[in-house]
Design brief:
- The structure is a single chain.
- With 432 residues, this protein is an alpha+beta fold.
- The protein folds into three domains: 91 residues, Roll (Ubiquitin-like (UB roll)); 125 residues, Phosphorylase Kinase, domain 1, CATH 3.30.200; 195 residues, Transferase(Phosphotransferase), domain 1 (Orthogonal Bundle).
- It has 14 helices and 13 strands.
- A five-stranded mixed sheet has the order 2-1-5-3-4. Strands 6-7-8-10-9 form a five-stranded antiparallel sheet, sandwiched between helices.
- A hairpin with a 2-residue loop joins β9 and β10.
- The longest helix has 20 residues.
- Bound molecules: adenosine-5'-triphosphate (ATP).
- Adenosine-5'-triphosphate binds next to β6, β7, β8, β10 and β11.
- InterPro entries: Kinase-like_dom_sf, PB1_dom, Prot_kinase_dom, Protein_kinase_ATP_BS, Ser/Thr_kinase_AS.
- It catalyses: L-threonyl-[protein] + ATP = O-phospho-L-threonyl-[protein] + ADP + H(+); L-seryl-[protein] + ATP = O-phospho-L-seryl-[protein] + ADP + H(+); L-tyrosyl-[protein] + ATP = O-phospho-L-tyrosyl-[protein] + ADP + H(+).
- It is an enzyme of class 2 (transferase).
């Protein structure tokens, strides 16, 4: 079939949807049931349903029916969405099998245990732990806290400053009751309570993002004139501190970066600030994107306080055109160029340029290619395609996923990344 990856959205009545990025030709019916069982650990699931073009429910009980479901999905996609590489989530509805548990009319299990209030649904409203490779107890308890929506300053103990950026500081913290490490970004912003509320509500969507390539979001709160955003902690920090990264390692990292971006693009969420400092790594070889600009209001509030064109912005964005995925592809190209060479792809760029000169440089200049004597032809070609000023020539999401540089690295070799991160961290420790 060779169709691009897209999101399967698992919908269970009364629970938060779980999004799962799948590659249609790789995912099996059995694997899908396993993922569903993470959401419904106490139920026996043997089938699920989806809605066809007439909104009739069609049951899927095996691999053949699953292939038909994918075929239906791709047939129904509009040409426009396909051309833009936008794939809306395909919603599936697990069919709950019968068990000895007491059930209500909706087929949901009813608590019958001691602490029971009588008619409470047993299914938790906590966001599902869909980090497919992380089912630790600490993760579960973190999600339970989130379900209460009660992340507060007093829950966290500050350990150290991890870094600071435009307008904020990031701290390593310990979540007291679960003893989990978390990162807390604190930004000072003078906003009305109404705007604060709007920001928090816009950030809610992050609870629905479940991808191993996206930093987990644990919650956000305002305290006086500061917003605190609590996320997963990554012990390797951000990629700007690793520059230059050898091509083989960066190739493996790119698989995770692209996976994260495509996951969010499929949810119609744009990052808006792709750059090395927004890509985090850890010593288990995971690579994750952070700082998605999901809250328009927050992006606006930060932008009015800390103005700036940054060197990763696409020329068309600087010129005020509509911001879209292709602008993100450009930023990805600048990011990969910088991480691999330690330089930016604009020859006349200097550190002391005014914002106007910087804008002029990005708009007027043709970006350089990676040196062909230092990097593989595939990598040079891929970055060149990301850095096409002409939007028609810039690589589309479809072509991006099938490009030889991406294909060659698609397993994301976590072991290689882990070794590299650990080695770099220990070299840093020796130096300091
Ligand atoms: N979840 C995290 N885990 C570990 N380190 C982090 C985490 N989030 C951020 N950091 C570290 O904190 C630094 C500062 O992050 P911050 O997002 O404030 O700024 P930035 O991305 O460098 O710049 P800007 O504010 O322009 O986006 C990062 O460069 C990174 O090294």
């Amino acid at each position: 079939m060779n169709e691009p990856p897209f999101t399967l959205r698992i919908h269970v009545e009364g629970q938060q949807d779980m999004d799962w990025m799948v590659q249609p030709e790789d995912v099996t019916f059995q694997r899908t049931l396993e993922v569903i069982s993470q959401l419904l650990p106490h139920s026996t699931i043997t089938a699920f349903e989806y809605e066809d073009e007439d909104n009739d429910r069609v049951t899927v009980r095996g691999d053949d029916e699953m292939r038909n479901m994918f075929a239906d999905y791709f047939t129904e996609l509009s040409e426009e969405d396909r051309a833009r590489g936008m794939f809306p989530p395909l919603i599936i509805y697990p069919k709950l099998g019968k068990s000895s548990q007491v059930r209500n009319l909706l087929g949901l299990k009813i608590k019958t245990s001691k602490s029971d209030s009588g008619n409470e649904q047993e299914m938790s409203t906590a966001p599902p732990d869909s980090k497919l490779d992380s089912s630790s107890d600490s993760n579960k308890s973190i999600h339970q806290i989130l379900a209460c929506g009660s992340m507060k300053e007093e829950d966290l103990q500050y350990v150290q400053v991890l870094g600071s950026g435009n307008g904020g500081q990031v701290y390593k913290t310990i979540h007291k009751s679960t003893k989990s490490l978390m990162a807390l970004k604190v930004i000072q912003l003078d906003l009305t309570p109404l705007v604060q509320k709007q920001i928090l509500s816009e950030m809610e969507i992050l609870h629905k993002c479940n991808s191993v390539s996206i930093i987990a979001f644990y919650g956000a709160f305002f305290n006086e004139n500061k917003i605190s955003i609590c996320t997963e902690y990554m012990d390797g920090g951000s990629l700007d501190r690793y520059i230059p990264v050898p091509e083989n390692v960066l190739g493996a990292m790119s698989a995770h970066i692209i996976n994260g971006l495509v996951y969010m693009w499929n949810l119609k969420i744009l990052h808006r600030d792709i750059k090395p400092s927004n890509i985090l790594v850890n010593s288990t070889g995971q690579v994750k994107l952070c700082d998605f600009g999901v809250s328009t209001q927050l992006v606006k509030s930060i932008a009015t306080s800390f103005v700036g064109t940054n060197v990763y912005m696409a020329p068309e964005r600087i010129q005020g055109e509509e911001y879209n995925i292709l602008a993100e592809v450009w930023s990805l190209g600048v990011t990969l160029f910088e991480i691999s060479t330690g330089k930016l792809p604009f020859s006349s760029l200097t550190a002391n340029m005014t914002p106007f000169e910087l804008m002029d440089c990005i708009i007027m200049q043709n970006p350089q290619s990676l040196p062909s004597d230092k990097f593989s032809p595939d990598f040079v070609h891929f970055v060149n395609l990301c850095l096409q000023k002409n939007l028609r020539q810039r690589i589309s999401v479809d072509r991006l996923l099938t490009h030889p540089f991406v294909k060659r690295n698609e397993d994301g070799n976590s072991q290689l990344v882990a070794e590299y991160v650990k080695q770099t961290l220990s070299q840093r420790a020796v130096k300091s």
